[in-house]
Amino acid sequence: MSVPIRPLLHARGISKFFPGAVALDAVELKLNPGEVHALLGENGAGKSTLIKCLTGAYRRDGGTVTLDGQDVSPASTNEAQALGIGTVYQEVNLLPNLTVAENLFLGRQMTRFGLVRRRAMNARARAVLEDYGLSIDPAEPLTSYSVAVQQVVAIARAVEMSGKVLILDEPTASLDRDEVQLVFGVIRRLKARGLAIVFVTHFLDQVFEICDRATILRNGRVVGERLLEAVRPDDIVTLMLGRQLEARVQARRSGPGGEVLVELEGLGRRGMLEPVSLSIRAGEVVGLAGLLGSGRTELATLLFGAVAADSGTVRKRGRALRLARPRDAIAARFALCPEDRKTHGIVADLSVRDNILLALQARQGWMRPVPRARVNEIAEHYRRALDIRAASLDMPIRLLSGGNQQKALLARWLATRPDLLILDEPTRGIDVGAHAEIIALIERLREEGMALLIASSELEELVAYSSRVVVLRDRRQVGALEGSRITPDNIIGAIAAQTPQTPQEVPA
Amino acid sequence: MISQTTPSVFKRVLPQLVILAVVLACNLAVFPGFFALSVHDGRVFGNLVDVLNRGAPVALLCIGMTLVIATRGIDLSVGAVMAIAGAVAASVLAGGQGWGTALLGALAAGLLCGLWNGVLVAVLRIQPIVATLVLMVAGRGIAQLITEGTILTFLDPGMIRLGAGTVLGLPTPIWIWIGLGALVITVVRRSALGMLIEAIGINEAASRLAGINSRVLLICVYGVTGFCAALAGVIVAADIKGADANNAGLWLELDAILAVVIGGNSLLGGRFSILASLLGALIIQSVNAFILLSGLPPEFNLIIKAVLILAILVIQSPKVGHALYMLRAGGLPLGGRTKARSPLTSKEEKAQ
Amino acid sequence: MIRATHLPLLVTLLTFVLAYALCAAQYPAMLSSRVIANLLTDNAFLGIVAVGMTFVILSGGIDLSVGSVIAFTGVFLAVVLRDSAMPPLLAFALALLIATAFGAAMGAIIHYLEMPPFIVTLAGMFLARGAAYVLSTESVPIDNALYDTLQALYIRAPGGGRFRLIGGIMLAVFLAGALVLHRTRLGQNVYALGGGVATARLMGVPLARTTIAIYAISGGLAGLAGIVFSLYTSAGYSLATVGVELDAIAAVVIGGTLLSGGYGYVAGTFFGILIMGLIQTYIVFDGTLSSWWTKIVIGALLFAFILLQKGLTWATTSRRKVLSGSAAPS
């Protein structure tokens, strides 16, 4: 049904370059009035860059945006707002120390003789919010209401100030089921009012529930625009995750592995991850599949003790472990390369050498410095073994490319000779060469008898090296695949299933 | 420890050495006899000796302050801790104990104050500037409580020697600050301490994930700072042969912070150099000497300090740093983290 | 309607009432209008400067320069009135202008150079104190007809208390401060800055203008406090009011304002000032207690309020932390 409605907002050929990377490559986005449009893609696909280009937070390097038939190029979020493009972010972007009404009217308060008319403002706020289905006291502090209500207030503010296009950047990421319905109710009202709404989320069920149309991005390109009535979830997941790696990844799948090394029994934390049970054998790779926000990273975080679990046990070779801090996990010879390399991985201003040594040195304690000769030996060894390309090991690690930073982080943990290596998105945002090397390394480590737990959104990769794949969705374990059943299609099926599949038994 | 080789240390402190040389040259210009040394009764006299001697309290303070600032913290209480330590030493002496006991008591008091700050920062997670403000406000009261409001004088020759005596012809305080400075530099750089402290200051989340016990390290760092402040307090008290709870170490915390900043250490934490901070302390003292010798009214002292701070601020400013970086594409490590970042991202980073 | 954000203010109020009741129970004379009048007069300059400090701290900053600015203003007035024929009112206006411009300049440096307020205002502290020294190192007495007139202005209350002009000025400043903070757009922007700079920017708060205005207000009020202080002492002395910035910060925090910004009320600061004045008055009345107890008690109160605030912040954010589920907030 290609009705020739003029789109309310039409972005054509949008390009954005960052030093050494193309973030957006001639992207097109068409938003019709009265339509909810999903913007989909894994991390790094270019969603947030595209949004920032539309809202004026970034200057686009190419392309045109027309709004109501007029060419626009906002230079700031305020300008975009004045033009009619409002945005609501995942983290509620309101001020927690102000009241609901103050948040709603900040910068455009009603005044008389220069004084803010609080009473009138509260009354007006109450009326506005009732339009959004909220009957709350706007004189209360924002934080006395749930995140969902705060999110609706943020939407109300954005719509009141702009009124044509509303961009919702993962507004439901930290909401529970009922709260999501509250937000969806508001979205439906706005849709009926004729707004064009962009909805970014990682929850596919929500996409199918609320959206009419979807644009899917991968690696800075549009890989498809679909009318959602006409497609199945599998197709969308396939588009999002892609299959371009198929030919390249050539790892041999492992056998069943050796003795059971680590067992998780009901490991979870309220509001973060529902209890997960699985076991990992020495010399095998267990994959964690699921979309972003499915609980992959949360599982890694809990297992490493970075956040303490509030239920379940972890046993290593049958002995229960207490994992309250990363130090406990390190003492048990666990290692974690985190997803967010920049904030949780590298220590930017320290040298490559110090970064490699950090975990080993932390475990030994400051009193027993690793002797300089040994330090050089270790750093040199890993520089050669992992082919870390740095002009000098003394240069700050922040000057290295993403792939080389990742290899240095791997070196940091390999230097501690771990029994269990947890890798969270080990190949994200790194170049093709480094990518292949890291996959080869995973294979080598497994053959040497190490146990690995790897979370990744690259399905082909998971299929290539995992002997088992655990599938997570909505922060819950929803399935497990083994042996020849591990195929991209089966994983996609498990991720996209609307109703939870009968979980496959996990061999204990 | 690891990446410290002699040339890189020299390169790191080069700006401070240059500034010091310039200030000393100015001194020489207004007072040709500035470098002259003479020996009477086995004791060396001269303006240079005075600079080293008078600079002792700030030099001692900035040893600890450098470490605290490297962890992204700050310690406002060191001046008050000096007063407390001096008061403890004087009251122990007044109680008839020997100078050794008095010294130990003072150092223990300083250590305790430091640990208190450390617990507030590391365990209760109170911002350092707020946490140490408590002791800054209450500390002088505590010191007065100990001395009961009087200037508690003493005549113990052992104690007085710590402030006014000489060892091998040079005043004792010089030996003390050089000794402690060398000791701390050695410990920090020969052990892994320096690297771990820097890691915490640069990225505490990543450090924790790498298994660093940041809590214990932070407490230790504040403890060391308290210890240094106590030693400075003892020296000041020994110098005037009494504990003056009101004025001992007054505003010296600011001088110590200034010395650290002049030493090119970023207030945002991270890489640090104690040696550079010590040079910073000497620069401050040389400026003081210059004002004294040049016949400028001592009133200008504060204005010159303010101008110094402002100049260094401008150099350290991320924005100016970025501009310099663009100019030189590489450049000297002047302390400000001269990251190559666009104005936009630097704004974003400030915001967080 | 009692809300969590009001709790520190209530605690402050309760502390004051309790403390005053205890004092009065021990020394009934402390209820006299004379004591109350003196409480206002003696703390007038501190109160005025604390209002400015409330603005600064609410926005998430700090201003260490105010004590020096007070001293500078005092010396400036004394020297100008001694050495020139300038009418005192013009001198007052000039002093206010200088102090306000000084604050605005610090605000501009903080905003445009992206430097921590702590270190910028530290430089300001040195600069203002140094400028005061340069004007005069001696205490300069002020002998001026207008000063005599102003000092003689008071309202006599039953019981012999004399409510003087400077106490009135302080009350007026508190009222004006409360009005600006709670009822104007500027005030809302101050809170917005304290709530989060990044969010405030996204919500369209003019950061540069607000930051400069905040430090200009703090500087200007420090100038006004300097005028009041010179009326109080009839002299200008460059070594006066050392450490007043600390007293002002303490009063703001004891008044229930969160030191990291965003939460607090001008009214709280008023009671913070009264609590600190009360401690001093009590020590005077007691006669056997020594003055240093003031510092210790204020330090202890400071600590108690910091802990209280920490507890409240922790209680309201712990839920969020679980949700975001990341390792340690960076």
Automatic annotation (TrEMBL), chain A:
State if Mitochondrion is listed as a keyword: no
Which Gene3D superfamilies does the record match to this protein?
P-loop containing nucleotide triphosphate hydrolases (3.40.50.300)
Tell me where on the tree of life, at the top rank, the source sits. Bacteria
Question: Where does it mainly reside?
Answer: membrane
Q: Which SMART domains match?
A: AAA
Q: Which residues form the ABC transporter domain?
A: 9-244, 256-499
Which locations, inside or outside the cell, does it occupy?
Answer: Cell membrane
Q: What keywords tag this UniProt record? A: ATP-binding, Cell membrane, Membrane, Nucleotide-binding, Repeat, Sugar transport, Translocase, Transport
CDD domains, per the entry: ABC_Carb_Monos_I, ABC_Carb_Monos_II
**Per UniProt, what is one GO molecular function of this protein?**
ATP hydrolysis activity
Keyword Ribosomal protein in annotation: no
Q: Name one GO cellular component term.
A: plasma membrane
* InterPro entries per UniProt: AAA+_ATPase, ABC_carbohydrate_import_ATPase, ABC_transporter-like_ATP-bd, ABC_transporter-like_CS, P-loop_NTPase
| Membrane disposition | Peripheral membrane protein
Which Pfam families does the entry mention?
ABC_tran
Point out the signal peptide segment.
none
Name by which UniProt lists this protein = ATP-binding cassette domain-containing protein
TrEMBL record, chain B:
**An example molecular function term from Gene Ontology annotations:** transmembrane transporter activity
Signal sequence annotation: none
| Superkingdom assignment | Bacteria
According to the record, the segments passing through the membrane are: 17-39, 51-69, 76-96, 102-123, 130-154, 174-196, 216-238, 275-296, 302-327
Recorded hits in InterPro entries, A to Z, give: ABC_transp_permease
Its placement in the membrane is given as: Multi-pass membrane protein
GO annotations of cellular component type: plasma membrane
Q: Where does it reside?
A: Cell membrane
Keyword Lipid metabolism annotated: no
Q: Which UniProt keywords apply?
A: Cell membrane, Membrane, Transmembrane, Transmembrane helix
Question: Has keyword Ubl conjugation?
Answer: no
In its UniProt entry, what is this protein called?
Answer: ABC transporter permease
The taxonomic lineage of its organism, from the top, reads:
Bacteria, Pseudomonadati, Pseudomonadota, Alphaproteobacteria, Rhodobacterales
